[in-house]
Design goal:
homotrimer; about 350 residues; mainly alpha; Ammonium transporter fold; 2 domains; 15 helices; about 0% strand
């Protein structure tokens, strides 16, 4: 009689199951279907801020319960697929309404109620994008978060009971004409580590390292890809001469790191063409982050993880058109390591 | 031998049929396939303004004739499905080029010719969105109007022969930081009734009431939902503290009222989960209206019914993913009452 | 034994094939699958500027080689379908970073490397849009170029090593209130010829005429349609009173000319309803160009060929809904003349 792997012991537990699904939901933000990864990542957020940790947990719970209330597919609920967008929208709403972006401020009751509806709604958007993309065997990724992020952050500018921070300030974009900044080792070190932390809106390089450990618990290849993605994105910023602050804060890296995790072994088998394709995706994601920033600047809205979603969608939609690549359907994709071994067995 | 219901006596009439289809087209703006509803709504518009009444009628006629000219599906033509987007684009073009938004100004011949092409083109967009959404059993709603509205209103800024009104003024969005306005009973009363009237660009609460009667002739549940949608949207504005003027003018309500009509019994069976789902849709639509306003402000373009379309599309696409909900395919959806009784018979 | 037509002699040649495919790629910008058309068009660009000619050739080569590297469908490669978006993105990147837009400046090595990645990525977007639109029998057109154009031009504003020209200046749109300009014969003559040249970012009426010859080599009807499209678009500008400069520079015409080529016989059989449908498409494309300009003005980004793509997509998606029209699937569409004769034989 086969035994479930250690990390799957509570997935079907009658009462503790919900805790398992919520932790997986936090792990799914970085595409890891593993409650231990989720727990480590949650600890990384609490390490930086008790407020953000609480908010992240609540957002995941709301998203998961909404899906259960309307009786969504139970397997998807158990895999944490209705939690991760709720986690992100809750974090975003607190981050962009707090005077202290780095650690967050406790929400007032208006904001709490606003978070409740917002996180609920992301669980509607999950099957909506599933219906559109499912036939193409492309996952919805964090698009429910991105779309509800734009909708629900944008609306805040019209409401007097919840004020947004100065980070959401509409301006007219200006061309950065130089001189090219003097980059240091700090540009690279903080840029790469914050690039991981910024996925969860955390401005703390230690959190970034702990999150990387959380990924590594589930997949070594995935953690390596996240690191590569963040590093190459810093490289794009350095080579073409972007603002030093933007690179250091991890803004170039957080989308590219996610693209790297998604394309580098998870939804695409790692072979030489697949690796080159992933590198191309990383380089393009770093630029698309930069471009989305320009497009959104007149509205004051943030890029969120839109660059990751758009580039990864395009490259997965295209992958079946290139016989050198081996795409893996979302419901078969587990970890890069398992994808490789299954292929060899098969 | 069965007799057609009273309201369907002229649907297949050889010469008077076109009048029936055009009136249904006006009714279809609020999703009512009933010529008497259409006639009452047309009267509601004429009550406020002879100009808007004439323009609404002409837009519906142009849309319907274009579809017949290119030989579109005759059943769709007879159901008024090629008229309602033409009605709306004609109303929008006059509303946003008139110095007197409330009652409209008579168009010059440049604008008349511009309306002709614009209303014609909406009848091309109807089967275009039908092709994209049909396989998902999701209706195109007023998206042909919204898209052509943005295209054809935007282009007007580049032409010297047709001037746009001050309502289309590009600006940089600002955060509304309060103090929270003092709302009165008028905020609620005018907000709710204008929320119905504003669907047709009418700034007149009496028109709103007559339009509600027009809906009630076809479906009592639908009229109740429209009222609920407009009221809850006013509630969103009041709770979160929006500008009093925006609420009173019905701007918060007109998208939410449409979402309520679409989700509340028409394309989704009314049961408890369906009702909660509709309420969630209403609350979200009110916010998305607010957000779309911020996103469009730098271009000066109006939100139109985009919030209704985007939220309703998302929630209908998602509905098949929740077993607690019972979606109804567009070609079977008639009225909430018939949807309920058919289900009980079946 | 049948002999391949003159223009197809090198399509399957073991070593010279690549030259054939690249020239077809240049021809495919204007939807002509003919290497001689491509060669004539390349000459038209070199006539205006050695820099633009070189850049256009290189972009096509990069796009084609990328597709071959990831093993794309060989038939599509041979038809030049992986080259034309690369040609356009390379031209756009040089045009909008050159102080001398008319003739271009030689790129620095930063820009060369930037062009390399950009042109490569368009070849990923080709099968991505193919996956989305293929089931609807609608071609991707130049959307890979448009999307990567916005992404990669937008990102340049964040980089200090590559400066953009004053043509990419974010501003707030203003309504053109007149007086209506005094148009001359030059408005019409330069407007129509530059409308063809501007497809390739060339500000030179002679280039426009040579490009038209290049199209005529493959299809007389297509060349006539391109001329009609550019002329009617000038007409739209003149009738509604647009800025004289915009018309003269061919800005009104270049999208409309492409819509005319696509709908006027290539993807839709030429009959009376089809011709009227094409004329409607031309008139609408001219307006959508004007509108997209307003929507993009706050970001400073150019319209590129987005108006052509959006209108043509909508009208082809809709065409199957009108029985008066005869759409032709992309893989059967060759030239208007062949489409007509095949239909008669069949």
């Amino acid at each position: 009689m086969s035994q479930a792997p250690f990390q799957d012991r509570f997935r079907d537990h009658p009462t503790l199951g919900i805790a398992d699904w919520v932790l997986r939901g936090i792990g799914q933000v970085v595409l890891q279907n593993n409650p231990i990864s989720g727990a480590v990542i949650l600890a990384a957020i609490f390490y930086n801020s008790r407020i953000y940790g609480t908010v992240c947990l609540l957002g995941t719970v709301i998203g998961t319960l909404t899906a259960m209330g309307f009786k969504a597919d139970r397997g998807m609920v158990k895999d944490g697929l209705f939690g991760f967008n709720g986690a992100l929208i809750a974090l975003a709403l607190v981050a962009f309404t707090s005077r202290d972006f780095a650690h967050g401020n406790w929400p007032n009751w208006h904001l709490w109620s606003y978070i409740l509806i917002s996180a609920s709604f992301t669980s509607v958007l999950v099957p909506a994008f599933g219906a559109l993309l499912g036939p193409h065997k492309v996952p919805g990724l964090t698009m429910p978060f991105v779309l509800s992020g734009w909708w629900f952050l944008g609306a805040l500018l019209q409401f007097s009971t919840i004020d947004v921070s100065s980070a959401l300030k509409p301006t007219s974009p200006a061309d950065f004409t130089g001189p090219r900044p003097d980059y240091t080792w700090g540009t690279w070190f903080y840029g790469i580590t914050n690039g991981i932390a910024e996925i969860f809106f955390q401005d703390d390089w230690v959190s970034g390292v702990i999150i990387l450990v959380g990924i590594a618990i589930n997949t070594g290849i995935g953690a390596g890809m996240a690191l590569l993605g963040s590093a190459l994105a810093v490289g794009v910023g350095v080579v073409y001469g972007a603002h030093d602050d933007a690179i250091r804060d991890g803004l170039f890296g957080y989308n590219a790191a996610l693209t790297a995790v998604a394309l580098g072994g998870l939804f695409l088998r790692v072979n030489w063409p697949g690796f080159l394709y992933t590198v191309l995706g990383i380089l393009v994601t770093a630029r698309v982050w930069a471009s989305m920033g320009i497009f959104l600047e007149p509205t004051g809205m943030p890029v969120l993880t839109s660059a990751f979603v758009f580039v990864t969608w395009a490259m997965l939609l295209a992958a079946r058109g290139f016989t050198a690549l081996t795409p893996i359907a979302p419901d078969e994709a587990t970890t890069p390591e398992e994808n490789l071994s299954r292929r060899r067995e098969g």
